[in-house]
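Q: What would this chain look like folded?
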Amino acid sequence: MQDVAVSKEGIWCSYFDEGVFGEGISTEGLVLFDNTGSPTFQYHTHLPDAPSIADCYAMDGGKNTTLWLYPYTDFELIEVNPEKNSFIAHQTPETLHGSQAISIRGEYSYFYSPYNKEGTLYSWKAEDSGAKKIGKLSGTLRGLDTRQKAHFIGIEEKSIKVYTIINPKEY
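A: My prediction, written as structure tokens:
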């Protein structure tokens, strides 16, 4: 398992390449389990036309029942709606490829630590051709869902930090 996100609908689990190209439920790339552990949504089964997941690098809870994910190989930012068995995919700038964490807020998306840019935080407005560097952070970050005021939680060896991005229009 690569990542876990908890929502009122259940527990989202994403998988890395060994699971996706293995056997069992992990081959779905992304699965929503209800609170009893039964799968209620399976990415590749329920969304056969969606971009393929070879490895899910990052995910973040969206509004209502949606979930955002950032999978390898095409690095499209994908909003998944399990209630409607639908998705919306956005092609991201190459600068953001390989990001280890994402946080989505309205028209802005934040990407942490892409390939060869360790610790760098970027802001990207959907469909813009480029991303804007907004700073550097340290530690292992995870995006916080839209119900939270903060954008990321960061874990370091001896501390846990919460990061809030203020006024993205300045970037």
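The first strand starts at residue 3 and ends at 7.
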